[in-house]
Design brief:
The complex is a heterodimer of chains A (about 170) and B (about 190).
Chain A (H helix, E strand, L loop, with lengths): L18 H17 L6 E6 L17 E7 L3 E6 L7 E4 L5 H16 L4 E6 L5 H14 L3 E4 L4 H14 L1
Parallel strand pairs in A: 2-5, 5-6
Antiparallel strand pairs in A: 2-3, 3-4
Helix pairs in contact in A: 2-3
Chain B lengths: L1 H17 L14 E2 L3 E2 L5 E6 L5 E5 L2 H15 L5 H9 L10 H6 L2 H6 L13 H12 L4 E6 L5 H13 L4 E8 L7
Parallel strand pairs in B: 1-6, 3-5, 5-6
Antiparallel strand pairs in B: 3-4
Helix pairs in contact in B: 2-3, 2-6
Classes of the chains: A alpha/beta (about 170), B alpha/beta (about 190).
Chain lengths: ~170, ~190
């Protein structure tokens, strides 16, 4: 008969060696400590013109100007030049204001040889998000000269007329 | 096993000493997204938050700066603050109440403050308290940068008033806080 020789009652250890698991855990911790950073909020820099200086309005070529009027429901009305404006409408979708800006930028570049000047106005019922989006579009389309101005009564009337026509 | 325990406690101590708690904001602001990648610095920042209902909140970092600003405002508006209220103010990250209600808010515990709906800092042309807060903060800390944290749905009118207030104080360079969005690839 076979005999089981346990060598005089020696006890076999049942403990599992956990060293590899601990090694892996520390490797993971170190990896995340080195690769992640706390996410800081990003910012956009804004430079406004000095209000205290006397109003020296820059003389610019009217043909270079493109005026945008933002209103509620994310709508934007735009027109070129200063005289006899023909109001057209667009919005913030990818097919909207970005295409318009790029098209006008090309046209103005072709006809006057200089970049466009965008005048941004806003009606009271627009959102703050609209303002940030439009400034963002300036950055995306590469338009370098733009200004935030108060809306004039003439613009208000134009927009009201256009909205009335749509109803 | 004791060695692992030691290392774990070391790590814990490291994180306890190097990280800060996120400041308890009285209002949730959902900032719009933009492709801008400039980061906001951590110190010397004056934050003007505008929530979607058009309420304006004011916050500035730095305990000493807050104490100094409270002193200025106290002198200007003739409202006295007890030392306990001043200490409470220097620990508050941001608030939005007219100065007349400020002592009341300071007496509340942080838990009560968060449950009370703060009405926002008035900035009508007749009573523009925001202007005073910003002006005195700049006296207290000349290196302060201004950051406007507006909610996407906030009305344009309030944002415009804030910008006009800043221009009034000759602050023409400031930052708008936004979320990051990817620059569109094809134009």
């Amino acid at each position: 008969m076979a005999e089981v020789d346990t060598g005089g009652g020696k006890k076999v250890s049942t403990k599992v060696d956990m060293t590899p698991m601990v090694d892996l855990a520390f490797l993971l911790v170190t990896f995340f400590m080195l690769t992640t950073t706390f996410s800081k909020p990003q910012t956009m820099e804004i430079n406004m013109p000095d209000k205290t200086k006397d109003n020296e309005t820059m003389k610019v070529k009217e043909s270079r100007t493109l005026s945008l009027v933002m209103t509620k429901d994310d709508k934007i009305y735009y027109y070129q030049g200063v005289e006899d404006p023909v109001l057209e409408q667009t919005d913030f979708s990818p097919n909207g204001i970005r295409k318009v800006l790029l098209k006008k930028k090309k046209e103005i570049m072709a006809s006057t040889g200089e970049g466009p000047i965008v005048v941004i106005k806003s009606k009271k019922d627009a959102r703050y998000g609209n303002l940030v989006d439009i400034l963002d579009e300036m950055s995306i389309t590469g338009i370098e000269i733009y200004a935030l101005v108060d809306i004039t009564p003439e613009d208000e009337q134009l927009v009201e007329k256009a909205e009335a026509q749509q109803k | 096993m004791t060695a692992m325990c030691d290392v774990a406690f070391l790590l814990l101590t490291f994180f306890m000493l190097t990280t800060k708690f996120k400041p308890d904001e009285p209002v949730v602001v959902d900032t719009p997204s933009s492709i801008s990648e400039t980061k906001l610095p951590d110190v010397d920042i004056l934050t003007i938050s505008i929530d979607k209902d058009g309420r304006v909140f004011f916050g500035v970092d730095g305990q000493f700066v807050r104490e100094a600003v409270l002193q200025f405002m106290s002198d200007r508006y003739g409202i006295a603050f007890t030392p306990k209220q001043q200490k409470e103010f220097s620990l508050m990250s941001s608030f939005g109440v007219p100065i007349a209600n400020l002592p009341q808010i300071l007496d509340m515990t942080p838990g009560q403050r968060n449950s009370v709906a703060q009405p926002g800092i008035p900035l009508d042309s007749a009573k523009n308290e925001l202007r005073d807060w910003v002006q005195y903060t700049r006296y207290a800390n000349t290196k302060c940068r201004i950051a406007v944290k507006g909610d996407q749905q906030a009305g344009f009118e309030v944002a415009n008033k804030v910008i006009l207030t800043l221009q009034d104080l000759n602050i023409n360079k400031f930052n708008l806080i936004t979320d990051l969005e990817a620059r569109p690839k094809s134009l």
